[in-house]
Design goal:
This is Alanyl-tRNA editing protein. Keywords: Metal-binding, Zinc. It holds the Pfam family tRNA_SAD. By secondary structure, the chain is of the alpha+beta class. It folds into 3 domains: about 80 residues, Beta Barrel (Elongation Factor Tu (Ef-tu), domain 3), CATH 2.40.30; about 140 residues, Threonyl-trna Synthetase, Chain A, domain 2 (Threonyl-tRNA Synthetase, Chain A, domain 2, 2-Layer Sandwich); about 110 residues, Diaminopimelate Epimerase, Chain A, domain 1, CATH 3.10.310.40. It is built from 9 helices and 18 strands. Helix 8 packs across helix 9. Zinc ion binds next to helix 2.
Length: about 400
């Protein structure tokens, strides 16, 4: 273990080794090498990728004592290996950032981390507390960035179980035998088998992006290093576009948006009031043009409008019946409503007309609505509805 290249020199990007054994696992070729810089998935850190003699290494896993390099092709004998360094260094930045942020939460609030996930976009830690305040998050982030800026060394040390007792570890170590400690002097002492840069400065920066409650813990999402710039770039692009659309400086985008949304709400209210007034006028006109039964075809109306209009008509005319139909979006739709002095049930209207249009509907004795296929004109539908009331 201690002799593995990625433990000997974490900054090593290429190496030479011998193929020790080969195998096939679930249709995937793998090789085991005499030594490697390829870090296998473990301790919350994803595996490395890269090449062996120009053959792609797509996955690296530790199975028993073997480190299996899953490759897209075959290699034999002596191999020259090369890491996808961008991916590995990113993992090192995120992983070291996690140590630092976790230690900051412990130092400031005695709030321990219970799990860690290094995702493709964001890193998360679950902290064993009911909640974290905005102030606590700001303080922990500031402390983490202070440690990064101080550019403290990140040291590793192999110790025995007996030697462990002389270190004040952040949490108990699960492994036995030789144990690898990752140490940021006077800040964090931690058993860890992952890869980290050699100094905190290489983490570059750490930014908390959000929190959510997770099974009694608080999950904190953050990014480090290059990912901070990538996040900033994405957010900058979005904010610039929002500010441009609102014609305000970026710093005023949020307050401008609040104003726009408030205006929109008021406009919607005013429009709804105006529409209701229009319908009221329409209802008066319908009543004026008809006798007891107000039967009418309307063009391109929503079901909601038909219902409102029918209700307005029979409210004004308690002895009347409103039979309204429209053809909209490839459907025939209708509403039938009765005034309070009328005794005939509107359900009898839908019983007669729904089969004519292969339709579906609902309602009660006072008002029914329905819709179906255009198997006749809206005028014919209204005529059928009218006939069913006579
Ligand atoms: Zn670690």
């Amino acid at each position: 273990m201690k002799d593995l290249f990625y433990y000997q020199d974490v900054m090593m990007q290429q190496f030479e080794a011998e193929v020790v054994s080969k195998g096939l696992e679930n249709g995937r070729n793998y090789v085991v090498l005499s030594n490697t810089v390829f870090y296998p998935t473990g301790g919350g850190q994803p595996h490395d990728t890269g090449t062996l003699n120009d053959v792609q290494v797509v996955d690296v896993e530790k199975v028993g004592d073997e480190i299996r390099h899953y490759i897209e092709g075959t290699v034999d004998g002596a191999v020259y290996g090369k890491l996808n360094w961008q991916r590995r260094f990113d993992h090192m930045q995120q992983h070291a950032g996690q140590h630092i942020l976790t230690a900051a939460f412990v130092e400031l609030f005695n709030a321990p981390t219970v799990s860690f996930h290094l995702g493709a976009e964001q890193v998360t830690i679950d902290i064993a507390v009911e909640q974290l305040t905005e102030e606590q998050l700001i303080a922990a982030e500031a402390r983490a960035n202070e440690i990064i800026l101080e550019n403290r060394p990140i040291e590793t040390k192999w110790v025995t179980e007996q030697e462990l007792t002389s270190y004040n570890l952040r949490k108990e170590v699960a492994v036995t035998g030789d144990i690898r400690l990752v140490i940021i002097p006077n800040f964090d002492y931690n058993g860890c088998g992952g890869t980290h840069p050699t100094s905190t400065g290489q983490v570059s920066a750490l930014k908390i992006l959000g929190t959510e409650k997770m099974k009694g813990n608080v999950r904190v999402s953050f990014v480090c290093g290059q990912r901070v710039l990538a996040e900033l770039g994405m957010r900058k692009k979005v904010l610039t576009e929002v500010a441009k659309q609102l014609s305000v400086p970026e710093a005023e985008a949020a307050s401008a948006l609040v104003k726009v949304l408030a205006t929109q709400k008021n406009t919607e209210k005013a429009l709804a009031t105006a529409k209701d007034k229009l319908l009221q006028f329409e209802a008066h006109a319908l009543i004026a043009n008809h006798d007891t039964i107000v039967a009418e075809v309307l063009t391109q109306r929503s079901m909601q409008e038909l219902q409102k209009l029918a209700r307005m008509v029979v409210t004004e005319k308690p002895n009347g019946i409103a039979l309204l139909a429209t053809e909209t979006e490839g459907k025939l739709q209708f509403v039938a409503a009765r005034g309070e002095q009328v005794t005939i049930s509107m359900k009898s209207v839908s019983t007669v007309v729904l089969p004519l249009i292969n339709g579906k509907g609902g309602g009660n004795d006072q008002l029914v609505q329905g819709g179906g296929e255009i198997l006749m004109t809206a005028e014919q539908l209204v005529a059928a509805m009218q006939k069913s009331c006579l």
